[in-house]
Task: inverse folding
Protein backbone atom coordinates (compact mmCIF):
# COMPACT_ATOMS: atom_id res chain seq x y z
CA UNK A 1 0.00 0.00 0.00
CA UNK A 2 1.63 3.25 -1.07
CA UNK A 3 -1.17 5.75 -0.53
CA UNK A 4 -3.12 7.02 2.47
CA UNK A 5 -6.62 5.55 2.71
CA UNK A 6 -9.55 6.61 4.88
CA UNK A 7 -8.87 3.58 7.05
CA UNK A 8 -5.56 5.10 8.10
CA UNK A 9 -7.63 7.66 10.00
CA UNK A 10 -10.10 5.28 11.59
CA UNK A 11 -8.39 4.84 14.94
CA UNK A 12 -8.09 1.12 14.21
CA UNK A 13 -5.31 -1.22 13.13
CA UNK A 14 -4.23 0.79 10.06
CA UNK A 15 -3.98 3.99 12.11
CA UNK A 16 -1.64 2.17 14.49
CA UNK A 17 0.43 1.02 11.51
CA UNK A 18 0.66 4.52 10.07
CA UNK A 19 1.73 5.87 13.45
CA UNK A 20 4.38 3.25 14.06
CA UNK A 21 5.75 3.01 10.52
CA UNK A 22 5.86 6.70 9.64
CA UNK A 23 5.66 8.91 12.71
CA UNK A 24 7.24 6.91 15.56
CA UNK A 25 10.03 5.60 13.37
CA UNK A 26 11.15 9.10 12.45
CA UNK A 27 10.24 11.18 15.53
CA UNK A 28 11.33 8.51 18.06
CA UNK A 29 11.67 9.86 21.62
CA UNK A 30 10.59 8.63 25.07
CA UNK A 31 7.59 11.00 25.33
CA UNK A 32 6.14 9.93 22.01
CA UNK A 33 6.99 6.26 22.45
CA UNK A 34 4.69 6.09 25.50
CA UNK A 35 1.86 6.31 22.90
CA UNK A 36 -0.56 7.86 25.34
CA UNK A 37 -3.15 10.44 24.36
CA UNK A 38 -0.91 13.10 25.86
CA UNK A 39 2.80 13.59 26.50
CA UNK A 40 3.67 13.95 30.17
CA UNK A 41 6.74 15.86 31.30
CA UNK A 42 8.08 17.62 34.37
CA UNK A 43 8.52 21.39 34.25
CA UNK A 44 10.39 23.56 36.70
CA UNK A 45 8.87 26.69 38.22
CA UNK A 46 9.23 29.21 35.39
CA UNK A 47 7.43 31.20 32.76
CA UNK A 48 6.47 29.32 29.62
CA UNK A 49 5.30 30.34 26.18
CA UNK A 50 2.61 28.43 24.28
CA UNK A 51 2.02 29.05 20.58
CA UNK A 52 0.07 27.36 17.81
CA UNK A 53 0.11 27.53 14.01
CA UNK A 54 -1.65 25.64 11.24
CA UNK A 55 0.22 25.26 7.96
CA UNK A 56 -1.65 25.08 4.68
CA UNK A 57 1.10 26.14 2.27
CA UNK A 58 0.64 25.43 -1.43
CA UNK A 59 2.75 23.89 -2.98
CA UNK A 60 3.74 21.53 -0.15
CA UNK A 61 7.31 21.27 -1.48
CA UNK A 62 9.08 24.44 -2.66
CA UNK A 63 12.66 25.68 -3.19
CA UNK A 64 14.28 25.87 0.25
CA UNK A 65 11.73 23.83 2.15
CA UNK A 66 8.47 21.94 2.45
CA UNK A 67 5.34 22.10 4.64
CA UNK A 68 7.06 19.96 7.31
CA UNK A 69 10.12 22.20 7.61
CA UNK A 70 7.83 25.23 7.63
CA UNK A 71 5.60 23.75 10.35
CA UNK A 72 8.54 23.24 12.69
CA UNK A 73 10.34 26.51 11.88
CA UNK A 74 7.17 28.61 12.08
CA UNK A 75 6.35 27.49 15.60
CA UNK A 76 9.96 27.49 16.79
CA UNK A 77 10.28 31.08 15.52
CA UNK A 78 7.10 32.20 17.29
CA UNK A 79 8.63 30.85 20.52
CA UNK A 80 12.01 32.46 19.72
CA UNK A 81 10.27 35.81 19.21
CA UNK A 82 9.16 35.54 22.87
CA UNK A 83 12.74 34.74 23.91
CA UNK A 84 11.48 31.26 24.75
CA UNK A 85 13.73 28.25 24.31
CA UNK A 86 11.72 25.69 22.27
CA UNK A 87 11.16 22.59 24.41
CA UNK A 88 8.21 20.57 23.13
CA UNK A 89 6.21 20.45 19.91
CA UNK A 90 2.95 18.72 19.06
CA UNK A 91 2.15 17.74 15.47
CA UNK A 92 -1.40 17.41 14.14
CA UNK A 93 -1.75 16.05 10.61
CA UNK A 94 -4.80 16.31 8.37
CA UNK A 95 -4.21 14.08 5.35
CA UNK A 96 -6.13 13.78 2.10
CA UNK A 97 -7.12 10.29 1.08
CA UNK A 98 -4.73 9.28 -1.70
CA UNK A 99 -1.67 11.20 -0.44
CA UNK A 100 1.41 9.13 -1.19
CA UNK A 101 3.34 7.59 1.68
CA UNK A 102 6.55 8.74 0.01
CA UNK A 103 5.59 12.40 0.22
CA UNK A 104 4.29 12.03 3.78
CA UNK A 105 7.52 10.35 4.80
CA UNK A 106 9.61 13.08 3.16
CA UNK A 107 7.66 15.72 5.10
CA UNK A 108 7.96 13.85 8.38
CA UNK A 109 11.73 13.38 7.92
CA UNK A 110 12.03 17.08 7.16
CA UNK A 111 10.15 17.95 10.38
CA UNK A 112 12.39 15.68 12.38
CA UNK A 113 15.55 17.26 10.93
CA UNK A 114 14.38 20.80 11.74
CA UNK A 115 13.25 19.79 15.22
CA UNK A 116 16.74 18.42 15.90
CA UNK A 117 18.32 21.61 14.54
CA UNK A 118 16.14 23.70 16.85
CA UNK A 119 16.66 21.43 19.87
CA UNK A 120 12.94 20.74 20.27
CA UNK A 121 11.19 17.38 20.71
CA UNK A 122 7.98 16.36 18.93
CA UNK A 123 6.25 14.75 21.89
CA UNK A 124 2.68 14.02 20.85
CA UNK A 125 0.56 14.09 17.73
CA UNK A 126 -2.70 13.38 15.98
CA UNK A 127 -3.64 12.17 12.52
CA UNK A 128 -6.90 12.62 10.65
CA UNK A 129 -7.65 11.42 7.13
CA UNK A 130 -10.42 13.08 5.12
CA UNK A 131 -11.94 11.94 1.81
CA UNK A 132 -10.35 13.04 -1.44
CA UNK A 133 -11.21 16.66 -2.27
CA UNK A 134 -12.07 17.65 1.31
CA UNK A 135 -8.58 18.97 2.06
CA UNK A 136 -5.72 19.87 -0.29
CA UNK A 137 -3.08 17.10 0.23
CA UNK A 138 -1.85 17.83 3.76
CA UNK A 139 -2.30 20.45 6.47
CA UNK A 140 -0.14 20.40 9.61
CA UNK A 141 -0.69 22.08 12.96
CA UNK A 142 2.29 22.49 15.27
CA UNK A 143 1.93 23.80 18.80
CA UNK A 144 5.01 24.62 20.82
CA UNK A 145 5.96 25.02 24.46
CA UNK A 146 9.06 27.06 25.27
CA UNK A 147 10.82 28.21 28.43
CA UNK A 148 10.92 32.01 28.58
CA UNK A 149 14.51 33.23 29.05
CA UNK A 150 13.68 36.93 29.17
CA UNK A 151 10.34 38.71 29.48
CA UNK A 152 9.86 40.90 26.42
CA UNK A 153 6.98 43.13 25.56
CA UNK A 154 6.26 45.80 22.99
CA UNK A 155 5.79 48.10 26.01
CA UNK A 156 9.55 47.82 26.64
CA UNK A 157 10.32 49.59 23.35
CA UNK A 158 11.83 53.09 23.87
CA UNK A 159 12.51 56.04 21.51
CA UNK A 160 15.96 55.62 19.96
CA UNK A 161 15.81 51.81 20.01
CA UNK A 162 17.45 50.42 16.88
CA UNK A 163 15.57 48.05 14.57
CA UNK A 164 17.63 45.15 13.24
CA UNK A 165 16.82 42.30 10.87
CA UNK A 166 18.90 39.17 10.34
CA UNK A 167 18.93 39.19 6.53
CA UNK A 168 17.18 39.63 3.21
CA UNK A 169 13.41 40.03 3.08
CA UNK A 170 10.64 38.56 0.87
CA UNK A 171 12.39 35.33 -0.11
CA UNK A 172 9.78 32.94 1.25
CA UNK A 173 6.78 34.63 -0.35
CA UNK A 174 8.48 35.04 -3.71
CA UNK A 175 9.75 31.46 -3.81
CA UNK A 176 6.18 30.20 -3.21
CA UNK A 177 4.81 32.58 -5.84
CA UNK A 178 7.30 31.43 -8.49
CA UNK A 179 6.80 27.76 -7.74
CA UNK A 180 3.01 27.94 -7.65
CA UNK A 181 2.62 29.90 -10.87
CA UNK A 182 5.36 27.93 -12.64
CA UNK A 183 6.92 31.22 -13.69
CA UNK A 184 10.06 30.72 -15.67
CA UNK A 185 12.43 33.19 -14.08
CA UNK A 186 16.15 33.07 -14.77
CA UNK A 187 17.20 32.85 -11.11
CA UNK A 188 15.79 30.39 -8.56
CA UNK A 189 14.56 32.11 -5.41
CA UNK A 190 14.84 29.92 -2.33
CA UNK A 191 12.63 30.32 0.72
CA UNK A 192 14.49 31.63 3.79
CA UNK A 193 12.60 29.08 5.95
CA UNK A 194 14.86 28.39 8.95
CA UNK A 195 14.64 27.99 12.73
CA UNK A 196 15.81 31.16 14.49
CA UNK A 197 16.22 30.05 18.10
CA UNK A 198 19.98 29.62 17.52
CA UNK A 199 20.59 33.25 16.59
CA UNK A 200 18.23 34.55 19.30
CA UNK A 201 20.01 32.43 21.90
CA UNK A 202 23.40 33.88 20.85
CA UNK A 203 22.10 37.41 21.42
CA UNK A 204 20.49 36.56 24.77
CA UNK A 205 23.62 34.79 25.98
CA UNK A 206 25.67 37.89 25.07
CA UNK A 207 23.30 39.97 27.22
CA UNK A 208 22.20 42.11 24.29
CA UNK A 209 19.46 44.36 25.63
CA UNK A 210 16.67 43.19 23.29
CA UNK A 211 13.45 45.08 23.98
CA UNK A 212 11.20 43.17 21.63
CA UNK A 213 11.24 40.71 18.72
CA UNK A 214 8.75 39.73 16.03
CA UNK A 215 9.07 37.41 13.03
CA UNK A 216 7.62 39.14 9.96
CA UNK A 217 5.73 36.23 8.34
CA UNK A 218 2.30 36.67 6.70
CA UNK A 219 1.90 40.32 5.72
CA UNK A 220 5.69 40.76 5.81
CA UNK A 221 7.66 43.55 7.47
CA UNK A 222 4.85 46.06 6.82
CA UNK A 223 2.30 44.12 8.78
CA UNK A 224 4.64 43.22 11.66
CA UNK A 225 5.94 46.81 12.03
CA UNK A 226 2.43 48.25 11.99
CA UNK A 227 1.21 45.78 14.62
CA UNK A 228 4.13 46.66 16.87
CA UNK A 229 3.59 50.40 16.32
CA UNK A 230 -0.06 50.00 17.28
CA UNK A 231 0.87 48.03 20.40
CA UNK A 232 3.65 50.32 21.69
CA UNK A 233 2.19 53.62 20.34
CA UNK A 234 5.58 54.87 19.07
CA UNK A 235 6.25 55.57 15.39
CA UNK A 236 9.16 53.93 13.58
CA UNK A 237 11.45 55.17 10.82
CA UNK A 238 12.79 52.57 8.37
CA UNK A 239 15.65 53.31 5.93
CA UNK A 240 14.79 51.74 2.58
CA UNK A 241 18.46 51.72 1.51
CA UNK A 242 19.40 49.65 4.58
CA UNK A 243 16.79 46.89 4.18
CA UNK A 244 18.62 43.84 2.82
CA UNK A 245 17.11 42.54 -0.39
CA UNK A 246 18.57 39.90 -2.64
CA UNK A 247 19.06 41.15 -6.22
CA UNK A 248 16.87 38.51 -7.84
CA UNK A 249 14.08 39.32 -5.36
CA UNK A 250 14.41 43.04 -6.06
CA UNK A 251 14.13 42.45 -9.83
CA UNK A 252 11.19 40.10 -9.48
CA UNK A 253 9.44 42.60 -7.23
CA UNK A 254 9.94 45.30 -9.86
CA UNK A 255 8.72 43.09 -12.72
CA UNK A 256 5.58 42.06 -10.85
CA UNK A 257 4.99 45.38 -9.13
CA UNK A 258 5.07 43.82 -5.67
CA UNK A 259 5.87 45.71 -2.46
CA UNK A 260 8.59 43.52 -0.93
CA UNK A 261 7.86 44.87 2.56
CA UNK A 262 4.44 43.15 2.32
CA UNK A 263 5.88 39.75 1.36
CA UNK A 264 6.16 36.89 3.86
CA UNK A 265 9.42 35.73 5.44
CA UNK A 266 9.95 32.46 7.32
CA UNK A 267 13.51 32.87 8.56
CA UNK A 268 13.63 36.51 9.60
CA UNK A 269 13.29 38.30 12.91
CA UNK A 270 12.86 41.99 13.62
CA UNK A 271 14.86 42.96 16.71
CA UNK A 272 14.23 46.13 18.73
CA UNK A 273 17.48 46.74 20.58
CA UNK A 274 18.80 49.26 23.08
CA UNK A 275 20.98 51.60 20.92
CA UNK A 276 24.05 51.02 23.08
CA UNK A 277 24.01 47.30 22.12
CA UNK A 278 22.97 47.65 18.48
CA UNK A 279 26.37 47.40 16.81
CA UNK A 280 27.46 44.53 19.03
CA UNK A 281 24.17 42.74 18.23
CA UNK A 282 24.83 43.17 14.53
CA UNK A 283 28.31 41.65 14.81
CA UNK A 284 26.94 38.66 16.73
CA UNK A 285 24.11 38.14 14.23
CA UNK A 286 26.53 38.21 11.30
CA UNK A 287 28.58 35.43 12.93
CA UNK A 288 25.56 33.08 12.65
CA UNK A 289 24.59 31.29 9.40
CA UNK A 290 21.08 32.79 9.64
CA UNK A 291 22.42 36.33 10.07
CA UNK A 292 25.12 36.83 7.42
CA UNK A 293 23.19 39.72 5.87
CA UNK A 294 21.97 41.20 9.13
CA UNK A 295 21.37 44.94 9.01
CA UNK A 296 20.26 47.88 11.08
CA UNK A 297 17.19 49.10 9.19
CA UNK A 298 15.64 51.78 11.32
CA UNK A 299 14.83 53.21 14.72
CA UNK A 300 12.06 54.08 17.13
CA UNK A 301 10.92 57.71 17.07
CA UNK A 302 9.79 59.91 19.94
CA UNK A 303 6.50 60.49 18.11
CA UNK A 304 3.58 58.52 19.57
CA UNK A 305 1.42 58.12 16.48
CA UNK A 306 1.81 54.38 15.82
CA UNK A 307 3.09 55.11 12.33
CA UNK A 308 5.68 53.34 10.24
CA UNK A 309 7.68 55.72 8.00
CA UNK A 310 10.01 54.67 5.22
CA UNK A 311 12.83 56.97 4.08
CA UNK A 312 13.17 56.09 0.41
CA UNK A 313 16.50 55.76 -1.38
CA UNK A 314 15.98 59.14 -3.08
CA UNK A 315 15.28 60.88 0.24
CA UNK A 316 11.47 60.95 0.26
CA UNK A 317 9.42 59.91 3.28
CA UNK A 318 6.29 57.79 3.06
CA UNK A 319 3.99 56.01 5.45
CA UNK A 320 4.07 52.21 5.23
CA UNK A 321 0.58 50.79 5.75
CA UNK A 322 -0.40 47.30 6.76
CA UNK A 323 -1.37 45.33 3.64
CA UNK A 324 -5.16 45.39 3.48
CA UNK A 325 -5.93 42.27 1.52
CA UNK A 326 -4.30 39.11 0.35
CA UNK A 327 -1.50 39.33 -2.17
CA UNK A 328 -0.82 35.60 -2.02
CA UNK A 329 -3.00 33.10 -0.16
CA UNK A 330 -1.60 29.90 1.40
CA UNK A 331 1.89 31.27 1.89
CA UNK A 332 2.38 29.28 5.11
CA UNK B 1 -19.38 41.54 4.88
CA UNK B 2 -20.94 38.31 6.09
CA UNK B 3 -18.57 35.70 4.68
CA UNK B 4 -14.92 34.82 5.18
CA UNK B 5 -12.68 35.99 2.33
CA UNK B 6 -9.09 35.09 1.54
CA UNK B 7 -8.08 38.52 2.83
CA UNK B 8 -9.17 37.48 6.32
CA UNK B 9 -6.18 35.13 6.29
CA UNK B 10 -3.62 37.55 4.89
CA UNK B 11 -2.11 38.71 8.17
CA UNK B 12 -3.19 42.25 7.31
CA UNK B 13 -5.96 44.58 8.43
CA UNK B 14 -8.84 42.17 7.78
CA UNK B 15 -7.12 39.40 9.76
CA UNK B 16 -6.86 41.81 12.70
CA UNK B 17 -10.56 42.59 12.32
CA UNK B 18 -11.52 38.92 12.26
CA UNK B 19 -9.45 38.27 15.36
CA UNK B 20 -10.83 41.18 17.33
CA UNK B 21 -14.47 40.90 16.22
CA UNK B 22 -14.90 37.15 16.45
CA UNK B 23 -12.20 35.50 18.53
CA UNK B 24 -11.13 38.10 21.11
CA UNK B 25 -14.68 39.24 21.76
CA UNK B 26 -15.77 35.73 22.69
CA UNK B 27 -12.65 34.16 24.19
CA UNK B 28 -11.59 37.31 26.10
CA UNK B 29 -8.88 36.63 28.71
CA UNK B 30 -5.64 38.37 29.73
CA UNK B 31 -3.38 35.83 27.98
CA UNK B 32 -5.14 36.17 24.66
CA UNK B 33 -5.66 39.92 24.94
CA UNK B 34 -1.87 40.43 24.93
CA UNK B 35 -2.14 39.54 21.21
CA UNK B 36 1.40 38.22 21.06
CA UNK B 37 2.47 35.30 18.90
CA UNK B 38 2.47 33.14 22.01
CA UNK B 39 0.72 33.08 25.37
CA UNK B 40 3.07 33.45 28.33
CA UNK B 41 2.22 32.02 31.73
CA UNK B 42 3.93 30.95 34.93
CA UNK B 43 3.90 27.27 35.85
CA UNK B 44 4.85 25.73 39.17
CA UNK B 45 7.23 22.79 39.45
CA UNK B 46 5.01 19.88 38.48
CA UNK B 47 4.25 17.30 35.84
CA UNK B 48 2.23 18.51 32.87
CA UNK B 49 0.37 16.80 30.07
CA UNK B 50 0.38 18.11 26.50
CA UNK B 51 -2.09 16.80 23.94
CA UNK B 52 -3.18 17.81 20.44
CA UNK B 53 -6.16 16.98 18.23
CA UNK B 54 -7.39 18.20 14.86
CA UNK B 55 -11.14 18.17 14.29
CA UNK B 56 -12.56 17.61 10.81
CA UNK B 57 -16.05 16.40 11.71
CA UNK B 58 -18.72 16.41 8.99
CA UNK B 59 -21.36 17.83 9.45
CA UNK B 60 -19.95 20.71 11.50
CA UNK B 61 -23.21 21.05 13.44
CA UNK B 62 -24.98 17.92 14.69
CA UNK B 63 -27.51 16.93 17.37
CA UNK B 64 -25.81 17.47 20.73
CA UNK B 65 -22.93 19.59 19.52
CA UNK B 66 -20.82 21.17 16.82
CA UNK B 67 -17.17 21.14 15.73
CA UNK B 68 -16.32 23.83 18.29
CA UNK B 69 -17.80 21.97 21.26
CA UNK B 70 -16.12 18.81 20.01
CA UNK B 71 -12.74 20.53 19.64
CA UNK B 72 -12.77 21.69 23.26
CA UNK B 73 -14.25 18.50 24.75
CA UNK B 74 -11.95 16.21 22.76
CA UNK B 75 -8.79 17.85 24.04
CA UNK B 76 -10.10 18.36 27.58
CA UNK B 77 -10.99 14.66 27.69
CA UNK B 78 -7.55 13.60 26.48
CA UNK B 79 -6.09 15.60 29.37
CA UNK B 80 -8.68 14.20 31.81
CA UNK B 81 -7.71 10.67 30.73
CA UNK B 82 -4.19 11.46 32.01
CA UNK B 83 -5.67 12.74 35.30
CA UNK B 84 -4.52 16.19 34.20
CA UNK B 85 -6.50 19.27 35.16
CA UNK B 86 -7.06 21.24 31.93
CA UNK B 87 -5.30 24.62 32.22
CA UNK B 88 -4.66 26.09 28.79
CA UNK B 89 -5.94 25.48 25.28
CA UNK B 90 -4.74 26.75 21.92
CA UNK B 91 -7.12 27.02 18.98
CA UNK B 92 -5.99 26.80 15.35
CA UNK B 93 -8.65 27.49 12.72
CA UNK B 94 -8.49 26.58 9.04
CA UNK B 95 -11.39 28.30 7.31
CA UNK B 96 -12.75 27.86 3.80
CA UNK B 97 -13.24 31.03 1.79
CA UNK B 98 -16.99 31.75 1.83
CA UNK B 99 -17.73 30.33 5.30
CA UNK B 100 -20.39 32.50 6.90
CA UNK B 101 -19.49 34.68 9.86
CA UNK B 102 -22.68 33.53 11.56
CA UNK B 103 -21.60 29.91 11.57
CA UNK B 104 -18.06 30.77 12.64
CA UNK B 105 -19.42 32.87 15.47
CA UNK B 106 -21.74 30.08 16.59
CA UNK B 107 -18.80 27.66 16.70
CA UNK B 108 -16.58 30.10 18.58
CA UNK B 109 -19.32 30.80 21.16
CA UNK B 110 -19.78 27.06 21.59
CA UNK B 111 -16.03 26.62 22.20
CA UNK B 112 -16.05 29.38 24.76
CA UNK B 113 -19.01 27.86 26.62
CA UNK B 114 -17.36 24.44 26.83
CA UNK B 115 -14.02 25.92 27.85
CA UNK B 116 -15.76 27.68 30.75
CA UNK B 117 -17.53 24.46 31.72
CA UNK B 118 -14.21 22.62 31.77
CA UNK B 119 -12.36 25.42 33.58
CA UNK B 120 -9.79 25.84 30.81
CA UNK B 121 -8.66 29.07 29.11
CA UNK B 122 -8.16 29.47 25.36
CA UNK B 123 -4.91 31.43 25.51
CA UNK B 124 -3.58 31.64 21.97
CA UNK B 125 -4.70 30.86 18.45
CA UNK B 126 -4.10 30.97 14.75
CA UNK B 127 -6.32 31.47 11.71
CA UNK B 128 -5.72 30.43 8.13
CA UNK B 129 -8.10 30.93 5.22
CA UNK B 130 -7.80 28.71 2.13
CA UNK B 131 -9.54 29.13 -1.23
CA UNK B 132 -12.98 27.63 -1.74
CA UNK B 133 -12.79 23.87 -2.28
CA UNK B 134 -9.38 23.44 -0.63
CA UNK B 135 -10.84 22.56 2.76
CA UNK B 136 -14.35 21.52 3.76
CA UNK B 137 -15.82 24.54 5.64
CA UNK B 138 -13.77 24.55 8.86
CA UNK B 139 -11.15 22.42 10.58
CA UNK B 140 -10.05 23.19 14.14
CA UNK B 141 -6.95 22.09 16.02
CA UNK B 142 -6.95 22.33 19.79
CA UNK B 143 -3.87 21.64 21.86
CA UNK B 144 -4.13 21.44 25.63
CA UNK B 145 -1.84 21.78 28.63
CA UNK B 146 -2.95 20.19 31.88
CA UNK B 147 -1.49 19.76 35.34
CA UNK B 148 -1.11 16.08 36.20
CA UNK B 149 -2.87 15.29 39.49
CA UNK B 150 -1.95 11.60 39.58
CA UNK B 151 0.50 9.64 37.45
CA UNK B 152 -1.42 6.91 35.64
CA UNK B 153 -0.11 4.32 33.25
CA UNK B 154 -1.45 1.20 31.62
CA UNK B 155 1.39 -0.58 33.47
CA UNK B 156 -0.48 0.13 36.74
CA UNK B 157 -3.38 -2.11 35.67
CA UNK B 158 -3.62 -5.33 37.77
CA UNK B 159 -5.64 -8.54 37.41
CA UNK B 160 -9.00 -8.11 39.09
CA UNK B 161 -9.21 -4.37 38.33
CA UNK B 162 -12.78 -3.41 37.48
CA UNK B 163 -13.60 -1.66 34.23
CA UNK B 164 -16.16 1.14 34.51
CA UNK B 165 -17.73 3.45 31.97
CA UNK B 166 -19.70 6.61 32.73
CA UNK B 167 -22.68 5.94 30.45
CA UNK B 168 -24.14 4.78 27.16
CA UNK B 169 -21.88 4.03 24.22
CA UNK B 170 -22.02 4.83 20.48
CA UNK B 171 -24.13 7.99 20.70
CA UNK B 172 -21.64 10.34 19.06
CA UNK B 173 -20.89 8.15 16.05
CA UNK B 174 -24.53 7.31 15.44
CA UNK B 175 -25.69 10.92 15.74
CA UNK B 176 -23.12 11.94 13.09
CA UNK B 177 -24.11 9.05 10.86
CA UNK B 178 -27.82 9.92 11.00
CA UNK B 179 -27.25 13.61 10.42
CA UNK B 180 -24.79 13.11 7.56
CA UNK B 181 -26.91 10.63 5.65
CA UNK B 182 -30.14 12.49 6.36
CA UNK B 183 -31.65 9.23 7.54
CA UNK B 184 -35.18 9.66 8.73
CA UNK B 185 -35.20 7.72 11.95
CA UNK B 186 -38.06 8.03 14.40
CA UNK B 187 -35.88 8.98 17.39
CA UNK B 188 -33.21 11.68 17.40
CA UNK B 189 -29.87 10.41 18.63
CA UNK B 190 -27.82 13.11 20.32
CA UNK B 191 -24.04 13.05 20.51
CA UNK B 192 -22.69 12.45 24.02
CA UNK B 193 -20.06 15.17 23.41
CA UNK B 194 -19.17 16.56 26.85
CA UNK B 195 -16.13 17.59 28.88
CA UNK B 196 -15.20 14.89 31.41
CA UNK B 197 -12.74 16.64 33.71
CA UNK B 198 -15.56 17.30 36.21
CA UNK B 199 -16.37 13.64 36.77
CA UNK B 200 -12.69 12.61 36.78
CA UNK B 201 -11.94 15.29 39.37
CA UNK B 202 -14.74 14.00 41.63
CA UNK B 203 -13.19 10.52 41.56
CA UNK B 204 -9.65 11.78 42.18
CA UNK B 205 -10.79 14.01 45.05
CA UNK B 206 -12.52 11.00 46.63
CA UNK B 207 -9.20 9.12 46.44
CA UNK B 208 -10.63 6.43 44.20
CA UNK B 209 -7.70 4.21 43.24
CA UNK B 210 -7.90 4.71 39.47
CA UNK B 211 -5.19 2.70 37.72
CA UNK B 212 -5.79 3.97 34.21
CA UNK B 213 -8.29 5.88 32.06
CA UNK B 214 -8.92 6.16 28.33
CA UNK B 215 -11.65 7.95 26.37
CA UNK B 216 -12.99 5.58 23.69
CA UNK B 217 -13.33 8.00 20.74
CA UNK B 218 -12.45 6.96 17.14
CA UNK B 219 -12.65 3.19 16.88
CA UNK B 220 -14.88 3.11 19.97
CA UNK B 221 -14.60 0.84 23.00
CA UNK B 222 -13.14 -1.98 20.85
CA UNK B 223 -10.19 0.05 19.70
CA UNK B 224 -9.48 1.63 23.10
CA UNK B 225 -9.71 -1.70 24.97
CA UNK B 226 -7.44 -3.42 22.47
CA UNK B 227 -4.84 -0.66 22.65
CA UNK B 228 -4.82 -0.87 26.44
CA UNK B 229 -4.61 -4.68 26.35
CA UNK B 230 -1.62 -4.44 24.01
CA UNK B 231 0.06 -1.90 26.26
CA UNK B 232 -0.46 -3.67 29.62
CA UNK B 233 -0.33 -7.26 28.24
CA UNK B 234 -3.32 -8.41 30.33
CA UNK B 235 -6.54 -9.67 28.77
CA UNK B 236 -9.90 -8.15 29.63
CA UNK B 237 -13.38 -9.63 29.99
CA UNK B 238 -16.33 -7.40 29.11
CA UNK B 239 -19.94 -8.30 29.99
CA UNK B 240 -22.17 -7.42 27.05
CA UNK B 241 -25.27 -7.25 29.26
CA UNK B 242 -23.63 -4.62 31.49
CA UNK B 243 -22.56 -2.21 28.73
CA UNK B 244 -25.00 0.71 28.80
CA UNK B 245 -26.68 1.28 25.45
CA UNK B 246 -29.55 3.62 24.79
CA UNK B 247 -32.54 1.80 23.22
CA UNK B 248 -32.65 3.94 20.08
CA UNK B 249 -28.92 3.33 19.54
CA UNK B 250 -29.37 -0.41 20.02
CA UNK B 251 -32.17 -0.51 17.44
CA UNK B 252 -30.28 1.61 14.94
CA UNK B 253 -27.22 -0.61 15.36
CA UNK B 254 -29.36 -3.67 14.63
CA UNK B 255 -31.01 -2.09 11.58
CA UNK B 256 -27.69 -1.03 10.08
CA UNK B 257 -25.71 -4.04 11.23
CA UNK B 258 -23.20 -1.91 13.12
CA UNK B 259 -21.05 -3.14 16.00
CA UNK B 260 -21.72 -0.51 18.66
CA UNK B 261 -18.44 -1.29 20.41
CA UNK B 262 -16.64 0.07 17.33
CA UNK B 263 -18.57 3.36 17.27
CA UNK B 264 -17.04 6.62 18.49
CA UNK B 265 -17.92 8.30 21.79
CA UNK B 266 -17.06 11.87 22.75
CA UNK B 267 -18.26 11.99 26.34
CA UNK B 268 -17.23 8.62 27.69
CA UNK B 269 -14.29 7.42 29.74
CA UNK B 270 -13.16 3.88 30.47
CA UNK B 271 -11.90 3.64 34.06
CA UNK B 272 -9.67 0.83 35.35
CA UNK B 273 -10.21 0.83 39.10
CA UNK B 274 -8.88 -1.09 42.08
CA UNK B 275 -11.73 -3.56 42.88
CA UNK B 276 -11.99 -2.36 46.49
CA UNK B 277 -13.01 1.11 45.21
CA UNK B 278 -15.18 0.05 42.28
CA UNK B 279 -18.61 0.31 43.87
CA UNK B 280 -17.78 3.60 45.57
CA UNK B 281 -16.53 4.93 42.22
CA UNK B 282 -19.79 3.91 40.58
CA UNK B 283 -21.85 5.77 43.18
CA UNK B 284 -19.75 8.91 42.74
CA UNK B 285 -19.99 8.74 38.96
CA UNK B 286 -23.78 8.38 39.09
CA UNK B 287 -23.99 11.56 41.18
CA UNK B 288 -22.54 13.56 38.24
CA UNK B 289 -24.62 14.66 35.22
CA UNK B 290 -22.13 12.93 32.89
CA UNK B 291 -22.32 9.66 34.81
CA UNK B 292 -26.02 8.96 35.41
CA UNK B 293 -25.81 5.68 33.48
CA UNK B 294 -22.37 4.69 34.74
CA UNK B 295 -21.80 0.94 34.85
CA UNK B 296 -19.23 -1.68 35.74
CA UNK B 297 -18.72 -3.46 32.44
CA UNK B 298 -15.86 -5.86 32.97
CA UNK B 299 -12.60 -6.75 34.63
CA UNK B 300 -8.92 -7.42 34.07
CA UNK B 301 -7.96 -11.09 33.78
CA UNK B 302 -4.84 -12.86 35.01
CA UNK B 303 -4.15 -14.02 31.45
CA UNK B 304 -1.39 -12.08 29.71
CA UNK B 305 -2.47 -12.42 26.10
CA UNK B 306 -3.56 -8.82 25.35
CA UNK B 307 -7.01 -10.03 24.37
CA UNK B 308 -10.40 -8.44 24.83
CA UNK B 309 -13.19 -10.97 25.47
CA UNK B 310 -16.88 -10.26 25.42
CA UNK B 311 -19.33 -12.45 27.31
CA UNK B 312 -22.48 -12.17 25.23
CA UNK B 313 -25.97 -11.90 26.70
CA UNK B 314 -26.69 -15.54 25.84
CA UNK B 315 -23.53 -16.73 27.58
CA UNK B 316 -21.14 -17.11 24.64
CA UNK B 317 -17.61 -15.77 24.69
CA UNK B 318 -16.00 -13.99 21.75
CA UNK B 319 -12.85 -12.03 21.09
CA UNK B 320 -13.40 -8.33 20.35
CA UNK B 321 -10.93 -7.16 17.73
CA UNK B 322 -9.83 -3.65 16.94
CA UNK B 323 -11.83 -2.35 13.96
CA UNK B 324 -9.59 -2.78 10.92
CA UNK B 325 -10.87 -0.12 8.58
CA UNK B 326 -13.07 2.91 8.58
CA UNK B 327 -16.75 2.50 9.30
CA UNK B 328 -17.38 6.23 9.26
CA UNK B 329 -14.79 8.83 8.27
CA UNK B 330 -14.73 12.36 9.74
CA UNK B 331 -16.39 11.39 12.98
CA UNK B 332 -14.33 13.93 14.94
Result:
Amino acid sequence: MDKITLSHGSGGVLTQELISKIFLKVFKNPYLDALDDAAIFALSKHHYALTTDSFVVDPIIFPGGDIGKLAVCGTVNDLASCAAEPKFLTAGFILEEGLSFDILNKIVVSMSRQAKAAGVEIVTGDTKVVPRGKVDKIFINTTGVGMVKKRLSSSCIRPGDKILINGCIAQHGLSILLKRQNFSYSVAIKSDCNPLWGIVKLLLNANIDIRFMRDPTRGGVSSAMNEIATACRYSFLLQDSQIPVDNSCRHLGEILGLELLDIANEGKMLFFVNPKDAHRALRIMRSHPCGKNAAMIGETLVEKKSRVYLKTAVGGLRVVGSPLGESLPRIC
Chain B touches chain A through 84 residues (CB under 8 Å).
